[in-house]
Write a structure and sequence with these properties.
Strand content: 15-25%
CATH superfamily: Homocysteine-binding-like domain
Number of strands: 10
CATH class: Alpha Beta
CATH topology: TIM Barrel
Structural class: alpha/beta
Number of domains: 1
CATH architecture: Alpha-Beta Barrel
Oligomer: single chain
Strand order of the largest sheet: 1-10-7-6-5-4-3-2
């Protein structure tokens, strides 16, 4: 484990941030617009999102680079903007963080499936290496590989991130199968831990997919399988569809009731994902500060 990560968690669970996409939408992102492109077109609005999380108490904030790989950007005709979007994304979060928080650069999936041979492993490797190297130029404190639904894609992305020499957190989405405890590709928690541990990543975890209650057994199983730090960012429950829009009804108060159990299960980094906002981070922070 990287000394930076070990030092960060030594005094107890670390508060991360909440959802970015919904916060950018609130500021005017259109349905068919690329969120990551706002690092170039609306940097001040992206910085507002990051700053709100810092003000809410986040000690770690992410970057608006979740879809800033050449395949995800390619859907918007922005495949040639990988370097600029990633560098700007890290710079924006760095400005918002100041001396109050650390910046972990976000790497999400490509949206291409290996299983259907849309891409090869080599294609993904090149795409993630390009993104990771661009991020590294802006010197974030770490890289978070997140919202991965395919363990193979997670492995390739984490390997690319590790090549930068930065600390790396690797997370998957567990929301499939009868017990909602497998990835979309059928990988178990234990399989994920085994594969990612071999890469010598600095922390592993889960994000997105389901609400905090479902994360407690996942976190327990991860803790039983590894001594690595665990990163947990559950959604604000499961969304309901209202007028064609995904609406999250879990409140910050509902969410934080389960935070003590998540800590007991072994979580070292705690934040929230889709449907959450700075109020969630404030409430989690209050819970973490309780003696």
């Amino acid at each position: 484990m990287h000394a930076f990560i070990a030092n960060l968690i030594k005094d107890g669970p670390v508060l991360t941030d909440g959802a970015w996409g919904t916060q950018i939408m609130k500021r005017g992102l259109q349905p068919r617009e690329c969120p990551d492109s706002w690092n170039l077109s609306h940097p001040e609005k992206v910085e507002e999102v990051a700053r709100e999380y810092v003000d809410a108490g986040s000690r770690v904030i992410l970057t608006n680079t979740f879809g800033a790989n050449r395949y995800a950007l390619g859907k918007f005709g922005l495949a040639d903007e990988v370097a600029e979007i990633n560098i700007n994304g890290v710079d924006i979060s760095r400005r918002a963080a100041g001396t109050k928080a650390y910046v972990f650069a976000s790497m999400g999936p490509t949206g291409k499936l290996l299983a259907t041979r849309e891409v090869t492993e080599n294609d993904l490797q090149q795409a993630f290496e390009e993104q990771a190297q661009a991020m590294a130029k802006a010197a974030p404190d770490a890289i978070v590989v997140e919202t991965m639904m395919d363990l193979t894609e997670a492995r390739i992305a984490a390997t690319a991130a590790k090549q930068t020499g930065l600390p790396v957190v690797a997370c998957l989405v567990f929301d499939s199968g009868r017990l909602k405890d497998r990835t979309m590709m059928g990988n178990t928690v234990e399989q994920a831990v085994e594969v990612l541990s071999q890469l010598e990543v600095d922390a592993i975890g889960a994000n997105c997919g389901q609400g905090i209650e479902g994360f407690i057994p996942i976190c327990k199983r991860m803790r039983a399988a590894t001594e690595l730090p665990l990163w947990m960012k559950p959604n604000a429950g499961r969304p309901e569809t209202v007028d064609g829009q995904a609406v999250y009804t879990t409140t910050a108060q509902d969410f934080v009731r389960f935070v003590p159990e998540l800590i007991q299960a072994g979580a070292n980094f705690i934040g929230s994902c889709c449907g959450s906002e700075p109020a969630f981070i404030r409430e989690i922070g209050k819970t973490l500060r309780k003696p």
